[in-house]
Amino acid sequence: MTEAFRGRLNEAVFHETKDTMSANASLASTSAATSGEVSAEQTVEFQTSDGWRIVGTLHLPTAKAKIPGVVLVHGSRHESDAFGQVASPSLADTLSQQGLATLRIDIRGRGASREPRRFYSMSPEQRDGVLLDVEAAIEFLAETTGIKSNRIGVVGEQDTAGASLIAASTRKNVASCVLISGRLNRFAMDAFAETRKPIFCLVSKEDRRGLKDMVDVYLSSKNKHSRIKVFEGLALGTTMFSTWRHEYPSEIPIEDSIGEWLKETLGPKTREKKKTHKAAN
What we know:
Number of helices: 10
Number of domains: 1
Low-confidence stretches: 14-38, 270-281
């Protein structure tokens, strides 16, 4: 590790510890209990701009008013169940408990979205189409009844983090983004540099590629709500969630940290403070 990179890492960890963590078709539906209330979960499908059929799971917590929503984008080595099921210890369940809707998609070539071509047989150019999957998922969620169309969050993992960050950076209805063990290219970094949106990066330090990219994008952020958490010995991606729960059962789960941050950055808190200040004057 070079001295320059070590310096950027130390600065990133310092800031993280210093600051306080504060519908085309519906195919089927099931119910899940969340926070004592019944909430609906649906399998949905929609098309991307290039015509690919994407299948996902939409979860809408019971709410009397419109709520923010989060698109969950898994890495290419697994499928949407990497984020878990609602009503079990998982990121999907945690976000539901925070009053956030979720849309867990299978990216093109994986899971229920694997037709007409499997991901492993795609060329690098064809795999770049994942960006269209994320963009379509954002628009689908924004148009869903009961969702605040301008308060959308995106969670990307490993090699889909670049597509997730580009979509989050360029879509006006996306308010914040979470990256887990992300691998980023220059296009993603440049797109994010043009925004003032908050980002939350999570990575284990033995993941050298992910560590460098996560530190770099965090330090490029212009938003005071951006965060980074660097772990040790937790492997890659969503595997970190279960490893952390096993190794540190008395500590706050990683999913809870993500859920609290998304609730904060997608909520109306900032705008409410502005209104209160204006009224006081």
